[in-house]
Target: NDK5 kinase
Amino acid sequence: MSNPVLVCALWRINAFAVLADALKRLMPCRGKLNKGGGLLQTVMALTPEVTFRQAVLFFTEADFVTEYTQHFLKPVCFSPVAGEHQSCPAESLLAYLQQGAQILCTVLLIKPGAWSHSLARILRQIELEKFTVVGMKHINLDPDVALGLLSSEVKQDPAVLEAHCTYLTSGTALVLCLQRPNAVKKLIDLLGPEDPKLAQALDPFFWRAQYGTSTVQNGFYGSKSYQIAVRDMKLFFPEGLCCTECQTLEEEEV
Model:
């Protein structure tokens, strides 16, 4: 080849799907891209395994150990006693790629009414999806805490906001800290859309389709990102969690 090419290693959540979608929109011959992905495969790696093989071909470990990767790959140990995070040495991105899916924690809040009627069934579904419960408590949410769990879209409508806050503070909620590989995304995928009717239309096995009755009484709150999961764990479980693995948190807050 007579001309040089630019090889980039990109990092973000859900990287493969996001990059593929961006390339399909930006590159010519979209029709060809959408049929089998042959052209797409020539410009990007399509799986983590291919990514690793190509990364070791073009880059060395030293290429990846930058301030950016050190921030995101730095183990952060959460001390229940001190109530703070202690940094440990950064690891190489290539070693990180070899590890595969990480065991992470996320927070599931079962809203008032939903857990008291269906707890055994919900716990069985949690077990079948290979989650481990590493924290559990009943809690009566304060209005300020309830407000912090709501999305910016909900907060734009005062009437809807009041309905959500009133419901969340109307009774006892059950808060669980769940652990498994890729826990945050897996839980969000299982919960489905926040509107139970939409969830039922898309897939009746979504948890909100099974236990929700309205956009307000939709059964569950789940941490929407790992950064939010870290926040939720510190909020609901300041005393710590019941397993050693969960005491090491990668706090990806910029």
Q: What stands out?
A: DSSP finds 15 helices and seven strands in the chain.
